[in-house]
């Protein structure tokens, strides 16, 4: 029988252990436990990174690191590390906890701590479900070259090894893979082989990819889920069965064919997928997608007869992600619907399982979760309390915090994440979060223009701070800023320590823009471009639009309402955010961020140069937005009251705003390519020529603000 000491991994450490001389480190762990073995492997890799090497057999003088599961004293995913003069113990409530404990030690070692001086630590998860939303580039929900270009990268298991390591490092414990119709890429249907477009050899490659992803994820303590869009089938299946409905790409909007052959194919596909992929944790679906023409009850019956029936027919149990439906109609502007919510609640209440086997996914503030931490709306509008009251017994809500606002610039506002969790994670019905995008895939780096060596290969590695903030704070909201500052120091040296505060100040520009700009679905705003959806598509917000634009929060005033109140003498209530107060906040925060950069020397370090440049870019956007708000207030005042001084103020602020945009161009033009942007593509309307995004390409629209101010006429 294998015991805890069944395997010893011997490493010779060239360095000091406390006050001792060079020592040998002996790792003790149970090799029969895959996650514990992975924890040992990750720790070994870190020791090698520090210049250490494998040594001889252990002796009585060895420094011992013991890794073990202690489910009696620790809850799942919790860990504690304790140490003596010549030993460290890593205990986890389960294998996942052991991984986190080992990674905690590895983090200290990477930050320069000697093995004998590692600080004892303990932690436990605040939330049970900490997921990444990852849209796959094949049969993706949106149509864009910005998604297609990731195809080869995402089919490479080396990419997934790096991505899953990042997830484990940051304590994410669930990977959710989304595309329209996953089954033909995962199985050759036994009874409907005509649904597949692939040869047996091609199918073998797809199976190897998915099995590799699921296996590596399981080894790292990461659950995996496949999420589909319900009534979609492959074009091959639709053609073979002469379907008349909108069931296949790219014609998957509207009324779908829900005939018996489609039901049987869908039900059997779910079952076969779960049976063929034993490492796949679960399956996701909803009542709200690709169900045009179906009543709420018909949707429920479809899900019961196909998806849920398929899950129950599998030869093993699996978890489920239940996407909350939004309304009785499928229009992008459709409002939430109480009857549909109640029907859904009744359907989920019938499902068997504990409260960690069904996750109810709800979009927090629709497609733009990076706005305010206050829950204002979900997909379709304001949500009732149907899913919470009474508190569910067999499911937990997992908030979906979407990012459709920044893909190029690095983002990192630790206080926003902490406040989000403070307001929204403590309720008895909340079990976790999803973080991710619909229109961006963090795989291929299609941004970087410089040929200088940088310390990343993949897009997600550029955005390490985003993932580290969300993941570590979801696991433990009390994680101090020191953890993130230490990572900047490890990567770039002591002078880079202020970058965390600088990012917190400068990239909060995006949060303020989103809160000041009411939105709904994906393409209604794009924060890092200061863009909104208008009659001509996505475009920079004009002065005229800014004057009329309603904010997301009721306690924030639009320019039009603010000027109207001021001119009428109506008092502004305490706690109200006015456009001029917002402008002052933006200016103060971004100037402070720029001051924090003054001691950072980026010469000879291209990666650090990009980090600093992104802070400067956010600051330029913030200063641009501040002066644009002031220009809008002055312009609206002139239009309502007259006064040449107001017109001249509008012109001056518009010109300063343009100057800040030119600073933004000067920063980003040398280091960022012109980039495809999904927001430019007509949604779900087939393949079109992609327009490219870069701040330099938007300058003509920005410059028009000056002309608008100059051409303004006073009231008659």
Automatic annotation (TrEMBL):
Residues 24-111 form the Beta-hexosaminidase bacterial type N-terminal domain. It comes from the Bacteria. Keywords: Glycosidase, Hydrolase, Signal. It holds the Pfam family Glyco_hydro_20b. Residues 1-22 form the signal peptide. Transmembrane segments: none annotated. This is Beta-hexosaminidase bacterial type N-terminal domain-containing protein. It comes from Novosphingobium kalidii.
């Amino acid at each position: 029988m294998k015991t805890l000491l069944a395997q010893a991994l011997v490493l010779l450490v060239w360095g000091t252990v406390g006050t001792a001389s060079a020592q040998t480190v002996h790792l003790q762990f149970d090799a029969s436990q895959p996650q514990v073995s992975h924890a040992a492997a990750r720790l070994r890799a870190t020791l090698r990174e520090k210049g250490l090497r494998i040594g001889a057999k252990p002796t009585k003088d060895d420094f011992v690191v013991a890794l073990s599961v202690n489910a009696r004293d620790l809850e799942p995913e919790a860990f504690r590390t304790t140490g003596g003069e010549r030993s460290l113990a890593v205990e986890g409530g389960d294998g996942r906890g052991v991984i986190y404990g080992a990674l905690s030690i590895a983090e200290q070692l990477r930050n320069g701590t000697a093995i004998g001086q590692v600080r004892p630590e303990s932690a436990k998860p605040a939330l049970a479900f900490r997921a990444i939303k990852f849209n796959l580039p094949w049969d993706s929900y949106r149509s864009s070259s910005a998604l297609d270009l990731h195809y080869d990268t995402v089919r490479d298991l080396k990419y997934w090894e790096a991505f899953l390591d990042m997830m484990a490092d940051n304590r994410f414990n669930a990977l959710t893979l989304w595309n329209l119709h996953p089954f033909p890429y995962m199985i050759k249907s036994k009874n409907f082989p005509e649904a597949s477009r692939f040869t047996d050899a091609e199918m073998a490659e797809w199976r190897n990819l998915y099995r590799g992803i699921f296996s590596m994820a399981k080894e790292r303590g990461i659950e995996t889920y496949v999420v589909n869009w319900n009534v979609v089938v492959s074009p091959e299946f639709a053609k073979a069965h002469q379907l008349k409905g909108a069931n296949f790409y790219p014609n998957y909007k509207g009324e779908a064919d829900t005939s018996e052959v489609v039901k049987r194919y869908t039900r059997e596909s779910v079952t076969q997928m779960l049976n063929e992929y034993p490492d796949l944790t679960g399956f996701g679906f909803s009542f709200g997608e690709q169900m045009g023409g179906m009543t709420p009850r018909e949707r429920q019956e479809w899900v019961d007869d196909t998806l849920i029936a398929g899950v129950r027919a599998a030869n093993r149990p699996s978890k489920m992600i239940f996407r909350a439906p939004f309304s009785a109609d499928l229009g992008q502007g459709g409002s939430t619907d109480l009857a549909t919510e109640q029907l859904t609640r009744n359907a989920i209440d019938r499902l068997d399982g504990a409260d960690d086997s069904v996750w109810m996914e709800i979009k927090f503030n629709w497609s733009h979760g990076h706005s305010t931490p206050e829950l204002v709306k979900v997909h379709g509008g304001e949500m009732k309390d149907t899913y919470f009251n009474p508190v569910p017994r067999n499911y937990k809500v997992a908030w979906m915090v979407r990012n459709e606002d920044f893909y190029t610039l690095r983002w990192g506002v630790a206080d926003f994440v902490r406040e989000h969790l403070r307001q929204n994670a403590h309720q008895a019905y909340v079990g976790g979060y999803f973080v991710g995008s619909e229109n961006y895939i963090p795989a291929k780096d299609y941004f970087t223009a410089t040929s200088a060596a940088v310390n990343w290969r993949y897009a997600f590695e550029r955005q390490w701070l985003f993932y580290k903030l969300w993941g570590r704070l979801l696991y433990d909201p009390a994680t101090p800023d020191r953890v993130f500052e230490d990572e900047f120091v490890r990567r770039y040296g002591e002078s880079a320590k202020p970058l965390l505060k600088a990012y917190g100040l400068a990239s909060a520009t995006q949060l303020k823009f989103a809160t000041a700009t009411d939105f709904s679905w994906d393409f209604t705003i794009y924060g890092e471009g200061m863009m909104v959806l208008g009659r001509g598509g996505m475009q920079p917000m004009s002065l005229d639009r800014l004057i009329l634009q309603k904010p997301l929060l009721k306690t924030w005033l639009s320019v039009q309402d603010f000027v109207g109140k001021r001119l009428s003498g109506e008092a502004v209530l305490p706690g109200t955010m006015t456009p001029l107060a917002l402008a002052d906040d933006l200016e103060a925060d971004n100037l402070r961020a720029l001051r924090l950069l003054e001691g950072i020397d980026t010469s000879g370090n291209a990666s650090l140069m990009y980090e600093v440049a992104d802070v400067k870019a956010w600051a330029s956007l913030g200063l641009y937005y501040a002066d644009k708000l002031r220009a809008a207030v002055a312009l609206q005042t002139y239009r309502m009251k007259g006064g040449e001084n107001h017109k001249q103020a509008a012109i001056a602020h518009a010109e300063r705003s343009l100057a800040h945009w030119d600073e933004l161009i000067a920063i980003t033009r040398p280091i960022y390519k012109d980039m495809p942007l999904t927001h430019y593509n007509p949604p779900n309307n087939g393949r079109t020529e992609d327009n490219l995004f870069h701040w330099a390409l938007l300058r003509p629209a920005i410059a028009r603000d000056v002309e608008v101010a100059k051409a303004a006429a006073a009231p008659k």
